[in-house]
Amino acid sequence: MINETHHSSLLSWVASANTPEAEFPIQNLPFCVFRNAGSSEPFRVGVAIGDAIVAPTALGALPGIDPIAREASLACAAPSLNRLMALGPLRWRALRLALSQGLREGSPARATLEPTLIKISQAEFDLPARIGDFTDMYTSIDHAINVGRLFRPDNPLMPNFKWLPCGYHARVSSIGISGQRFVRPTGQLMPPGAVTPIVAPTRRLDYELELAIWIGTGNALGEPIALDAADQHVFGFGLLNDWSARDIQAWEYQPLGPLLSKNFATTVSPWVVTTEALEPFRVAWHRAPDEPQPVGYLESSANRGQGAFDIGLEAWLLTEQMAAAGSRPHRLSATSFRHNYWTVGQMVAHHTVNGCNLCPGDLIGSGTQSGPGPGESGALIEITEGGKRPVALENGESRTFLADGDTVIFRGRAQRAGFRGIGFGECVGTVLPARS
Ligand code: CA
After folding, report:
1. Where are the alpha helices (DSSP H) in 104-195?
2. What is the whole-number distance in angstroms between the Cα of residue 44 and the centre of ligand 1?
3. Partner of 390 for a Cys bridge, out of 71, 77, 323, 398, CB 3.0 to 4.6 A?
4. Statement: residue 200 has pLDDT above 90
């Protein structure tokens, strides 16, 4: 699946794409929905290159362009990625190749594409897609054990965890783009030792470090997506913060799962890094011989061979005091998606094994990403062991859970020797005080 668009030697006529630390080199080409900041112009589809955004629709005017790439470029004349997502991998690949060729050093397409560039710093973003449905998974075994141990020390892992990728149907209306600022939620809490709940702002506000999985082509109702076909339905990946109110969650979650502890806000990054851009970062997926082996629809040799992705993920905290002092954010954790117990393909195959239909623009959260080592926990409830071990910050502040004014920043980057590293940009969200 590696092709000429992945070659590490490729350089762009957009010079900022060619530095070693660039998040958006020509090998990445992530999609977004953007407009000039502060304008009232309609949002439109863009592609990042270096520190700028290019309009893929401009490719349609190039003489001699591959007709399939042209069709895909015209699907970008829209305020969301849904039309492009629905076209499927043949057209996604053609568009990526045309973008790669047009943005390469020396390309005659420069004259057509360069006038469409705007700086990322001068853009504002909308959600990449019109999201019909949002499913949030629970698929990191390290997260499940670390959190489960707090509630059930003798039995941290539910018996189904090793047999199926757990998930629940989540809320779309409160999903916001990076930069989202949301009010601390109020709800029912059962204080320790109490017998009746109180109504109060959450005291245990947390984040969850997740990947956003964006569905491209869907499936017909009643027709499952086979494991080995699943990647053909995944358009790409971003970062996702599943903000969580742990005290509201602890009181409400049985028997039907989280509701108000999660549905007040979810933040996603503006960039969708395509599945094709991530091909060099595929890795083998393992299931130890003494663990339950996947049942039929969750098992394939291709999934074992290269079903996982090595995507580095980081969570950072910037408190209001740190921001006022001009301090750098504090890194809370760093891990990789390669540790996940289930692959994205297995999540998609499981989601549809009963015939459930996925649609272009559907969003799947990977579940909180925690790794096996110290410093790899993707939520404060794990890092602080349920609030018992505060995190000390460089400026003398400390945190068990999030305070008003706190900003949480996620970053992602995929790297492998012999290939250009590619970045995910940032997913940023800020906690505002509760309504009084
Ligand atoms: Ca979650």
Report:
1. 110-113, 141-151
2. 29
3. 398
4. yes
Residue type, 115: P
**Domains of the chain: which residue ranges?**
4-125, 134-432
Strand residues in 234-389 grouped as ranges (E):
234-241, 244-245, 266-268, 273-274, 282-283, 308-309, 312-318, 330-336, 363-365
- Do the domains spanning 4-125 and 134-432 agree at the CATH topology level? no
> Residue 74 belongs to what H/E stretch?
helix 67-74
- In Å, what is the CA distance from 285 to each residue of 288, 378, 412? 10, 21, 20
Given 3.30.390.50, 3.90.850.10, 3.40.50.300, 3.10.105.10, which CATH number is that of 134-432? 3.90.850.10
In what side-by-side order are the strands of the sheet with 422-432?
A: 180-183, 422-432, 407-414, 312-318, 330-336
Angle subtended at Cα 394 by Cα 393 and Cα 398, rounded to the nearest 5 degrees = 20
State whether residue 314 is helix, strand or coil. strand
Task: For residue 138, report the distance from its CA to the centre of ligand 1, in Å.
Answer: 6
| Residue 233 is a catalytic residue | no
Q: What is the pLDDT of residue 150?
A: 87
- Cα of 368 from ligand 1 centre, angstroms: 5
Confidence class for position 320, pLDDT limits 50, 70, 90: very high
Cα 261 to ligand 1 centroid, rounded to whole Å: 11
Residue 340 Cα to ligand 1 middle (Å):
14
Pick from 286, 329, 292: which is nearest to 304 by CA? Answer: 286
Ligand 1 centroid, distance to 287 Cα (angstroms):
23
Provide CB contacts within 8 A for 183, sequence distance 6+: 264, 432, 433, 434, 435
pLDDT tens, residue by residue, 213-251? 999 999 999 999 999 999 999 999 999 999 999 999 999
* Confidence (pTM): 0.97
Is pLDDT of 407 > 90? yes
CA-CA distance, 144 to 65, in Å (whole number)? Answer: 49
Other CB atoms closer than 10 Å to residue 432's CB: what's the count?
11
Q: What backbone phi and psi angles, to 5 degrees, belong to 305?
A: -70, -40
Q: Which fold has domain 4-125?
A: SH3 type barrels. (2.30.30)
Catalytic option among 143, 233, 339, 351: 143
pLDDT in tens, 89-124: 999 999 999 999 999 999 999 999 999 999 999 999
At 1-51, the pLDDT tens digits run 899 999 999 999 999 999 999 999 999 999 999 999 999 999 999 999 999
